[in-house]
Design goal:
Helix content of chain B: 25-40%
Number of strands of chain B: 14
Number of helices of chain A: 10
CATH architecture of chain A: 3-Layer(aba) Sandwich
CATH class of the largest domain in chain B: Alpha Beta
Number of domains of chain B: 2
CATH topology of the largest domain in chain B: Rossmann fold
Order of helices and strands of chain B: EHEHEHEHHEHEHEEEEHEEHEHEHH
CATH architecture of the largest domain in chain B: 3-Layer(aba) Sandwich
Oligomer: heterotetramer
Mean pLDDT of chain B: 98
CATH superfamily of chain A: Thiamin diphosphate (ThDP)-binding fold, Pyr/PP domains
Shape of chain B: globular
Bound molecules: thiamine diphosphate, magnesium ion
Structural class of chain B: alpha/beta
CATH class of chain A: Alpha Beta
CATH topology of chain A: Rossmann fold
Largest sheet of chain B: 7 strands, mixed
Strand content of chain B: 15-25%
Low-confidence stretches of chain B: none
Distance between the termini of chain B: 45 Å
Radius of gyration of chain B: 19 Å
Order of helices and strands of chain A: HHEHHHEHEEEEHEHHH
Number of strands of chain A: 7
Strand content of chain A: 5-15%
Strand order of the largest sheet of chain A: 1-2-3-7-6
Distance between the termini of chain A: 55 Å
Largest interface: B-C, 52 and 52 residues
Strand order of the largest sheet of chain B: 3-2-4-5-7-6-12
CATH superfamily of the largest domain in chain B: Thiamin diphosphate (ThDP)-binding fold, Pyr/PP domains
Largest sheet of chain A: 5 strands, parallel
Shape of chain A: globular
Number of domains of chain A: 1
Mean pLDDT of chain A: 94
Chain lengths: 340, 323, 323, 340
């Protein structure tokens, strides 16, 4: 890890000390990873099975280090484009767990007020753009946001998230190419979890790494251990500094594994069991906790307390969200256009 | 043994692949996984990876490759994982496939299967009814079966058709309806509507899942003394204008029903057809029951308010009956 | 000094860029070259490369980047080199731009300008009228000006609008029509039709280049004692149903005219609107004059046979007048 | 030039001697390059200006070596997807000059019987697929044709042609990626003429060469002197052999220059004059003629005679095409579907 100065995260709490990862940063990373894990577990394993979440559910179990390590680098003016496995991005940008849970349950206090479900949500006031289902559709949109930031003289960066499979889409190519030609401040963050739904990498691309696609755009491309949150953080610091300096986009390929089916109803029988076992040992939360204890950044008791606190936080949020009403059908027609 | 709508489509695919070695399937996750809805489950085992081609997430390439294979004399059946993603391969469909024959006499015998429609809380991107994008594009055929019988018979006809066919499968029907299918082979011709229920007082003209809604409404209305005829279009292009006009000639009143949103929906084409050809038989306004002009909302109460249902149809039909 | 339709659009762009620093143009070859039709000629010199962005050949990126910039508070005006290529950026328009506000309350104040229409021997891929793909997609506005005055006034309104606007410029009108424009600033509201000619006996409802065809037909018909009212829709979404219905209430006869192909064309929506709302005023069938359901052919005699013209309109109108 | 055996061109006349270029091949190349040049000159500088060609006219002046050198390698079963500057492909595959001229003039004897204009034509009986205007749209279609050949056990290759600008399109990426994943027999042939309409390369792509995009698909990519027809031929022999052997697609980037405006109405004032001068010296026809004389493959008299013969051939074809009738408007509705 080189000594690129950390640039980010002022909007969340105090910035970590510049330079190498420190205890404070580790705590923050752990908090958000645990929070994401807990919220997604509730959604997938409780609320969905109870019929309280009725739409599709895609979780990022095992991949939490990617949204957490990267979004913590983001600054107030930056704009983030999370994909469907990046829930922590919302929390880090200040969207409450309550509203996210209400979103999944189709309640009026959800981020989209019941109009859309799951991770299909955004809020420009905190710099988060909603994905649409079509994979990689946000990629050119992120380039446009970056263009706008430069246009307006804001020194911001767009964080564009996507999976390995999404890089097969035409929109991905067009968006990355445009960003490269225009030298736009975009950090492209790929979670390469080695599957796209049931499709393994070799049926998705002929190259070995997503990063092998960087040269096609004359764009630096770096491979990161996507299950090491501090590595993701450091790499994002490098990438964002590069983009922010006006040098153009930067691609981070975070190698990871999808520790679930594609969605809540998919048993992932097409994934060899060994892969789950192998990658289970690399769980980013377990690894960070071990490191925190090894480095004396935290005691086991502290970590246990954090788990418990998060469980309570989520209990409370679930209760709150369940009490949020469903949207009034009389509002069905509102807001297709600004004035109607 | 009863066969679901979904199984009927699978059977149709299976039989055509058995019958004709040029038929193959192509799409995302259709092989080992059997497709997002499992329509193609079992095909890989039976026919092998040559004939069940798993692709990258590349709708333009799926359609484009199908066109290329079609030009070479194969009969590809492409699957869009959800109809909503068809817009990602749009140019290939409306500009390449649709215009080859007219321009240079090259047939493109491809089928694009797309699970469409709402009612499963899929939200704005897993519930759309995109048929009108294609109905308005000359050179494409558009098929929207409502029953398991028709689904099987029409997928077989679509595969045998020498022109590009958009085949919309209503995902809400996949496992909801079933019926006993003939054991002997059959096909259902593309371009023929069906009178799903005969009636005297009023015609409901519809297609896809809404056929069931119309039949439900007809039952309620029958109890009130209103005899409703239900026309199931089955195919939107070519449109069976004769059956439509014949029904209106008989009943003199037309209620047009679709799950798709209102403005620019199929009801417009139907209204124009009726008002142009059988105007003198009309005893009342042509009325529409459709989804409103919004994206498909996710939350159940909103989605319910969005979708047409028997109650909404009955209300409009009553008004028209009394007109 | 007379201003052409093309110059009127350029003036509108220019004035809005002068007025509002958040307005910028983006598209292929729009900078130094000034665009394939030269609509943006001179803008680069005046406003610089920051505000006149030349792009790679990437329609999805052009639309997508416009959406991103729009979400950030800018007002991008994207140019499709020909309307025919809009299908290459289709998903971005119909799924991203169209649904943002409804879903998460995010306005996408973008304009997509597209030269559309035939009559210039452009053949199947440089002549299409793709408006119905967007008319049927809730969340988009669709504007089709027929005159230089409206083209300027509407492009200015489109730029100021906080929702995505598809702006179809009929390329056959670019240099064919001109008029004196007011020296003072003006806008034309989106969503208001215009009665282009008043009449008593029959309404021709149309838009775009066909307004001129309708006026030509009206002139011929006037000489035969048939007083034709011509309604120029100007905007297809939102559709000014009141003006349409008012005209039909007055004349009792409706002829729907468009250059676009027939099935699934705008005439369907108009017919449904009329047959639903002012049925009791109708004294005859609603008739359509449109292009037939084929791709736009290249060879002049074929293209001429394809396109609606005054003669074809007069023939249908005579029939309807006498009905 | 390595000694890869030449694989092609049986359907046109006798195959050239295997190995290095020889007199026979050179003669054939010269014939087709001259023919294309002459036909396009007539169209652009005569028929178009006389109003006899009413649609858009895009010519390949200065780029003739690319379609000629490559298509001469094609075998009977191969399928070719020419772009809008590859007219010689049609001649090499056996489509007559007469029918091509009738096509441009919208006559019933044109390849599309007046339905479409210029290079928008195809004929499956000679293995040529018509482009549509949308750039790169033929790329995934070519992949599909290659898939079909493998499916049917035909050992054919798809030749997919496009310009530098077309590589920015999503369809290009999706098509090339799919071909790579499936290891399909496709030769991708890029005419990098350094402009896309008025747009210079650096506004189209951030990489230096189109060939830099090969690694993104784990696909061999070779840069060729696109103004040297024998070099194009040899490179295509290598590429086609690779593709035909089942190894997957192969990308040829042929560096060249568009010696005209984008289309007949474009004066190309945006192109620095020097570039025309510089590249004018590299004219592929002049170069080949010089080489033929230097190598004693032909005498000047022979070459002059060929010019004259071609001019007569084209005179005759123009006369023939001008006598072809316009299509009957009564046929307008025919053939949208197979049976109507
Ligand atoms: C254009 C498009 N096609 C198909 C889908 C259906 N789909 C949703 S997620 C998914 C797999 C995505 O894989 P990847 O990009 O690797 O992301 P991951 O889910 O693995 O994080 C697919 C095929 C879609 N959303 N969009
Ligand atoms: C999708 C699409 N967008 C825009 C155009 C308009 N257009 C026609 S040719 C051209 C430039 C093509 O450049 P390149 O691919 O380099 O080919 P060249 O003409 O230089 O051979 C453009 C922009 C088009 N045909 N298709
Ligand atoms: Mg993945
Ligand atoms: Mg070029």
């Amino acid at each position: 890890m080189s000594a690129v100065p950390a640039t980010g995260a002022e909007i969340h709490n105090a910035a970590p000390a510049a330079g190498t990862p420190d205890a404070e940063l580790a705590h923050k990373c752990l908090y958000y990873m645990l929070l994401m894990r807990e919220v997604e577990d509730r959604i997938e394993r409780k609320l969905y099975r109870q019929g309280k979440v009725v739409g599709g559910v895609y979780v990022g179990r095992g991949q939490e280090a990617i949204p957490v390590g990267s979004a913590l680098v983001s600054q107030a003016d930056d704009v983030l484009f999370p994909s469907h496995r990046d829930m922590a991005v919302f929390f880090i940008r200040g969207v409450s767990v309550r509203r996210v849970l209400a979103q999944y349950m189709g309640r009026v206090d959800g981020v989209t007020r019941g109009r859309d479900g799951n991770m299909h949500m955004g809020d420009m006031s905190v710099g988060v753009v909603s994905l649409i289902s079509a994979l990689a559709a946000t990629v050119p949109v992120a380039a446009g946001a970056a263009l706008a930031m430069r246009y307006k003289g804001i020194n911001g960066v767009a964080f564009s998230y996507f999976g390995d499979g999404a890089t097969s889409r035409g929109d991905w190519h067009e968006g990355v190419n445009f960003a490269s030609v225009q030298k736009l401040p975009v950090v492209f963050i790929c979670n390469n979890n080695q599957y796209a739904y049931s499709t393994p990498l070799h049926l998705q691309m002929a190259c070995t790494n997503v990063a092998d696609r960087g040269p096609a755009y004359n764009m630096p491309a770096e491979i990161v251990d996507g299950n090491d949150v501090l590595a993701v953080y450091q790499a994002t610091v490098r990438a964002a500094a590069y983009a922010r300096s006006g040098s153009g986009p930067y691609l981070l390929e975070c190698k990871t594994f999808r520790m679930t089916g594609h969605s809540a109803h998919d048993m992932a029988q097409y994934v060899p069991k060994e892969l789950f076992e192998e990658w289970g040992k690399l769980d980013p939360i377990v690894r960070l906790e071990k490191r925190m204890i090894d480095q004396s950044w935290a005691a086991q008791g502290e970590i246990d307390a954090l788990h418990a606190a998060i469980a309570r936080e989520v209990d409370d949020a679930v209760a709150w969200a369940e009490q949020s009403p469903f949207p009034d059908p009389a509002t069905l027609l509102d807001g297709v256009y600004e004035s109607q | 043994m009863s066969t679901t709508y979904l199984e009927a489509i699978r059977e149709g695919l299976w039989e055509e692949m058995e019958r004709d070695p040029t038929v193959f399937c192509i799409g995302e996750d259709i092989g080992e996984y059997g497709g997002a809805f499992k329509v193609t489950a079992g095909l890989l085992e039976r026919f092998g990876a040559r004939r069940v081609v798993d692709t990258p997430i590349s709708e333009a390439a799926i359609v484009g490759a199908s066109i290329g294979a079609g030009l070479m004399g194969l009969r590809p059946v492409a699957e869009m994982q959800f109809a909503d993603f068809i817009s990602c391969g749009f140019d290939q469909i409306v500009n390449f496939a649709a215009k080859c024959r007219y321009r240079w006499n090259a047939g493109v015998p491809i089928v694009i299967r797309s699970p469409s429609g709402g009612g499963i809380h899929g939200g704005p991107f897993h519930s759309q009814n995109p048929e009108m994008w294609f109905v308005r594009t000359p050179g494409l055929k558009v098929v929207c079966p409502a029953t398991a019988y028709d689904a099987k018979g029409l997928i077989k006809s679509a595969i045998r058709d020498n022109d590009p066919v958009l085949f919309f499968e209503h995902k809400g029907l996949y496992r909801k309806i079933k019926e006993d299918l003939p054991t002997e082979e059959y096909t259902v011709p593309i371009g023929k509507a069906k009178v799903a229920r005969e009636g005297r007082d009023l015609s409901i003209i519809t297609y896809g899942a809404m056929v069931w809604t119309a039949l439900e409404a007809a039952e309620i209305l029958a109890a009130e003394g209103c005899s409703v005829e239900v026309v199931d279009l089955r195919t939107l292009v070519p449109l069976d204008r004769e059956t439509i006009c014949a029904s209106v000639r008989k009943t003199s009143k037309a209620l047009l029903l679709h799950e798709d949103t209102r403005t620019g929906g199929m009801a417009g084409e139907l209204a124009a057809t009726i008002a142009e050809n059988v105007f003198e038989f009309l005893d009342g306004p042509i009325v529409r029951v459709t989804a409103p002009d919004t994206p498909v909302p996710y939350s159940p109460p909103l989605e319910e308010a969005f979708l047409p249902n028997a109650e909404k149809v009955v209300e409009k039909a009553r008004w028209l009956f009394r007109y």
